[in-house]
Automatic annotation (TrEMBL):
Residues 3-140 form the Nucleoside diphosphate kinase-like domain. It comes from Pseudorhodoferax aquiterrae. Its cofactor is Mg(2+). ATP binds at residues 11, 59, 87, 93, 104, 114. Keywords: ATP-binding, Cytoplasm, Kinase, Magnesium, Metal-binding, Nucleotide metabolism, Nucleotide-binding, Phosphoprotein, Transferase. The gene is ndk. The keyword Signal does not apply. This is Nucleoside diphosphate kinase. It is found in: Cytoplasm.
Amino acid sequence: MAIERTLSIIKPDAVAKNVIGQIYARFEAAGLKIAAARLVQLSRAEAEQFYGVHKERPFFKDLVEFMISGPVMVQVLEGENAILKNRDLMGATDPKKAAPGTIRADFADSIDANAVHGSDAAETAQVEVAFFFPGLNIYAR
Ligand code: IDP
């Protein structure tokens, strides 16, 4: 199975709840390494660019407002099948529909404030990692 990298964001609601460590523990327990990490306050322009694929959707304005409402913790996760593994750990977009034991089931309040983002495919992972970590140095360990 391929070693992949994926972009993960712990969103403002989960940062405010002080559960960064609990979410990191789930990544580590699943065999994912933190290859890079930054605590970031996104600007409106950055949030609009990052979620540009959704700009025609009715929830776009609220999503951008939410993503700039406080700092986010952004990390590159690395490991076997990292993209799908992270999506499985996250659970469904709507926490009411997320499987028990997933990050969103345990830490998210609503479909807007849903605790985490994770790249959904190899192409988006590459673009999203480069968005936050241009020229990233990956440290072997
Ligand atoms: P994902 O984060 O599970 O990949 P996407 O469909 O890519 O879900 O949507 C991006 C983000 O936009 C979601 O995580 C959520 O915060 C927000 N979002 C998606 N659908 C809705 C909706 O119907 N209402 C409000 N916010 C939504």
